[in-house]
Batch of 2 targets.
Target 1
Amino acid sequence: MSEHLVSVKQEYVLAIDTSAGTTVAVLSLGEVLAELNYLEPMTHSERIGSAIEEVLAKAKVSPSNISQVVVGRGPGPYTGLRVGLAAAKFFAFGASAELLGICSLDAIAYSYYQQNPNQNVPVLVTTDARRQEVFWALYNGIDKGVPIRVEGPSVNKPAYLKELLTGQEHTVTDLPITASSLGQVAHFQSLTDLGASRDSSPIYLREPDATPSKAKRVSG
Amino acid sequence: MEHLIREAHASDLDAIMAIENECFATDAWSLEVMLSELEAPHTYYLVAEVEDKVVGYAGLSQLVGATQADIQTIAVRPNQRGSGLGRALMQELTKEATRRGAKEVFLEVRADNTIAQKLYKMFGFKQIGLRKKYYQPDGVDAFVMKTSLLRDEVSEPLVLGIETSCDETGIGIVRGNTLLANVISSSMDQHARFGGVVPEVAARAHLEALTPALEQALREAKVTLDEIDAIAVTNGPGLAGALMVGVGAAKALAVSTGKPIYAVNHLVGHIAADILDQGKLAVPTIALLVSGGHTSLLLVRDIINDVHLLGETIDDAAGEAFDKVARVLGLSYPGGPEIDRAALGGNPAAIRFPRGLTLAKDMAEHRYDFSFSGLKTAVARHVELAESKGETLLISDVAASFREAVVDVLIRKAIAACVDNNIPRLLLGGGVIANARLREVAIEACQENDIELRIPPLSLCTDNGAMIAALGSQLVQAGFAPSSLDFSADSTLLVTQIQS
C-alpha cells in the first residue's frame, strides 16, 4: 500500500468577511481555532494579506491545508466588500480549496442566537448602507445552527422598515459580523440536506450609481 | 528621507564603532576587530548615509571563488529604523554576493531579535540550525539562517502580473523578459452608455473576471501556479475601488501559495511593455504615456530605480478629451476610434483649434505639461456656433482638426523632451497609441529629429497584466526584496515610486 500514499487534506476552513471591517478566522469541523477582527471600515486592502497570514499562523495551519474558504457575500459597502471576495477567490484558487458563500447578515443572526440561546424569537439584523439607508434581513429563530431568514436581504430607509414591522414582535441586534460565526453558519449549512452554498457572488442590492451622460452646452 | 549606500572605508571606523556600541551594547566588536573586517580583502562593507551622516552599516564575507557567503553584521541606528535602510543594505549585500558567484548566503541572528529575523525572511533566509548560548555574556542562542541565490532561476523568473487599475482586468505571465500569456478582459462595453468609465461598474467587472482570466493565462502560458516564482500587482495609480480588487486578490494568492509579492507602479509598467517586445529596454529613453486616465512624459534612466516625471496633464487626459469630444459630435464611446473614423477624408487644417500650454509663457512654466480641457471647450463652441447660425458642419473636418491639435501637442512636447535632454529615444505607451494619426506624426517627427521611436504592439500598449509581470520580473532579476504584505492601493501613486 505504501506506494499509494495519498495526502489527505485536513478539514480546515478559512473564513473571510469584509462587509464591515476585516474579519478572518480558521475553523475545523465548526470549532474556531483562531480569529482576527479589525473594525476599521477603510483598511481592507491593506489588512487582508497580513490578516490571513496571521490567523493561519495563530491557528498553526498551513495554507495548503485549507480545504474550504467561506466568504461573506455582504451586503456591505461595495469597495470593502469586494476586497474580501477577491481575496477569497484567489486564496481558494491558490490552495485548491472549495469556495463557499454566506450572506453576511446570516452570520450576525447566528451570533445573536448563540449569545441568546433561550430566545428563539424573530430578530432583525441591520447594518449601515450609507445614504441614510440600512441593509437588513429578518430571521425567525435558528434551526440546527442555521438562522432561518424569512425576509431580506434588502436595502431600505429605516422608516420603511419601521412601518413594515409594525405590530410584528421582534428584537433588533447590532452585533458586529465575525468570521467565526460566518464559518460556523457554513459548517451547519453543510450538515443540512441542501449543503452549503457555492454561490460566492456579491450581494450588492443596488445598481451602480451612474447615469448616461449627455454633452453639456458650453456657450450661452 | 533620502539615503545613500556606499562602500565603507577605514575612515568610517569611528562612525561605525559609535553605532556598533549603540546597537550591541553588551557584545559589541572591538575597534581592532572592526578595522580588520573593513580592511580584509575577502569582505565587502557598506555604510548607509542620511544627510551626510553614517547611520548604518553592513558587511559580507566571501572567500575568493567560494560559492558560499556570510552576512557578517548589519546595524542601523535606532532612530533611523523603519525607513527601509536595513532592507536596502541587505539588498546591496545579496547583489554583491550574486556578483561574486555565491549560491548560498549564511548568517547568524540572535534568537530574541525577531525584527532582524523578519528582515532576513524577506530575503528568503530560513533557519537551518541553532547555536546554543552563542551570544555572550547574555547567553542568548543564535539561529543559523541560510538563503539560496539560485542564479539560474533568478535570472529567468516566472512572474504572474495582475492589473486592475481601470476598466481592463489583465493577467499576464512572463518568464524573464519573455511574454508567455497576456489575458485581458475589458468592461469597456458596459461603460459605453455612460460615455466614460464608471468606477463602480469597472470594479464589479474586475471581481467577476479575475478567476477566469487567471485560469486562461495559466493555460496559455502552459504553466502551473506552483511553477510561478513571484506575483506582481498594480497598486497605483488608478481608480481606488478597481485597484483594491486586484490588490486583495494578489495578496491572498501570495499567502495561499507562499509566493513573494511585488506591488508595482502602473505607469512604469507601461514602460516595461517594451521589454516584452524587444527583450530589453534601451535606456535612457523619454516615454510618452497616453491613455484615458493618463498623459505623462517620463525620463527613464533605469526602469527599476530611476524614472522621472517630466510633465503630465493638468486637467483632462488625452483619451478623456477624445471621449468628451466624441460626445459633442454625437459619436459613441470610446471616442478615440470613433473620431479616427469620423476624421477620414477630413481636413486637419480646416479649423485651427488651440494647442494647450504651447505659448511662450506656458512653455516657460509648463514645458512638458499638457492641457486638453480648453481644446474640448473650443470644439464644443465651434459646433454650437455653427448650429446657432444654421450652418452645416463638416464632422470630418472638425474631427480631423481636433485630432490634429491633440497629436500636435503630444508629439511636439515629447520631441522637445528628447532634444532638451539629449536623449535620442522615444517610447510610446497607453491605449491612445492605437490612434493611427498619432503614430504617423510620431514616426515623421522622430525621423526628422533622428530619434529612435519605439511603439510596442497594441495589446501591450493598452492596460494589461503582462507589462506588470514584466516590471515585477525586472525587480526579481535585480534581487529586490518583495513588498511587505501591508502595502495599500494608492490611486495617486507617484511615478517615482516604482515598487511599494
Target 2
Amino acid sequence: MLAYTIGFGALLVSGLLILILGLEVLQSPIVVVVATLIPLSLACGMVWEYLPEWRNFYMTYAILGFLAIGLTRFTNTPRQMAILILALVHGVAGLTIFLLPLGMVATQRSGVGFLMVSLGGALIGLMGVILSFLRMGSKVFSQEKLIRAFPLLFLVITVVYVLGFNWR
Amino acid sequence: MNRGSSWMQTIKRKLRLYWPLIKSLQTFLLLATGLAGYMSARCPIFHLPTLLGLSGSLFLAISGSTVLNMWWDRDIDARMGRTQKRPLPSGELSSQETVRLGLILSVIGLGWSALLSPLYALVVFAGWFFNVVVYTIWLKRRTCWSIVWGGIAGGMPILAGRVLGVGAIDLIGFLLTLSVLFWIPTHILTFAMRFYADYQNAGVPTFPSCYGFPVTRATIAASSVLAALAIATASLLIGVQWGFVRLLVVLSTGLLLLALGSLVRPNERVNFGLFKYASLYMLASMILLSIQ
C-alpha cells in the first residue's frame, strides 16, 4: 500500500509541478530521480502483493537502485556508467510492471483488466527510453514536441493504471 | 422595453465593476474552507437550508470585508502597477459607492449569520473585524507582522463552518483554523516577494522588505510544514478515511518539496510556483475534508 502511495503520489505531484512550473522543470537533475521513484515503487507494490517470496530481494534491489541513481545524479559519475545504472534500474522495474500482470492473467490469478497495468508499464517505459535518448543528445526525436506530449502521456498512464488496478 | 433594457445594461455594468472588488478567487477559496469546516462536522448529512445559509452569509461577509479593504487601500492600489487598474483607483467607481457597497454586503452577511446561530455569527464577525479593522485599518501600513492578523481573519471562515456544524469551538476547529493561518504566509509572502518593488513603491512594509528574502523563504518553508501538520492532525481527529489521508500526505509532500526547493535554489519560477501550488493545496485539502 505504501509503495503504491509513493508511486501514484510521485506521478500526481510530478504532473502538478509540470503544470505549475512549466515544462522547463523536466531539465532539472532531480526529475530523473523522481521519475525512477514512479516505476520502482509501483513494481515494489506489485511484487509485494503478488510474489511474496520475492519481497525481500526486490525491496533490496529497489532501494539500492534508487540510491545508485541518486548518487549518479549528484556526484561526478562517468556519463556512461550513469546511463547504464539508469537503464538497468528503470528497465527491470518497467519489465516487472509490464510482465507481472501478463503472468497473473495467464495463470488466471487476476482479471483481464489487470492488463491495463501492463499497458501503463509499457507507456512509462517508453517515456523513460525517450527521456534517455533526449539526455544522450539524440536528434531522432524533436525535444520540444516530445516534452509537450509528456503531460498527455502522464494523464493516459494514470488513467490506465487506475482502470487496471480497479478491474484486476 | 427600452427602459427595461437600459436597466439591464446598468446592472450588468455595475456587476462588471463590483466583481473585481470582491477578489473572487480569494473569496471563493475562503468560502470553500468554510464549507469544508461545516462538512467536517456534518458529512455525510446534507442539509440544504443550512448549507445555503452558510454559503450566502459567508460569501456576503467575506465580500463585504474585501470591498472595505479595497476602499481603505485605494491610495496604495493607485501606486502599485499590479492594482492601479482596479475600478476604484482607476476612477471607474467612486469611494462613496464602494464604501456603501462594502457596508451593505457586510451588514447583510453578518445579519444573515446571526439568524443561523449566535456563536457562528460571532466567529464570522471576528473574521470581519480582524480583516477590516485590525489588519487593514490598523496594522497593514505599520508592520509587516500584520499578516498574522490577516491570517487569523483568513482562518475564521473554516472555524465558522465548523462551529455551525458542531455548535461549539472544539480542538478540530482550532486545528483547522491553524492550518489556514499557517497556509496564509506561504500564499502572501510568495506574492510579496514577486511584487516586491510594487509594495516598496506603495510604502507597505512586508516581510521581504523588513527581513530580506532568505528569512522570508525560511518563514514560508516553516509555515508550509506547520500548515501540513495542522491539517494532517485535524484530518486524523476528524476520522478522514485512510485513502484521503494518504492523498493529503502526497499533496503535502509536494508543498514541502517546493518550499524546500525555494530555500535551496531560490528563483522567481519556483517562488511563484509555490504560491500557485499552495492555493491548489488548500483547495484540494478542503475538498478532501468535505467529501471524506
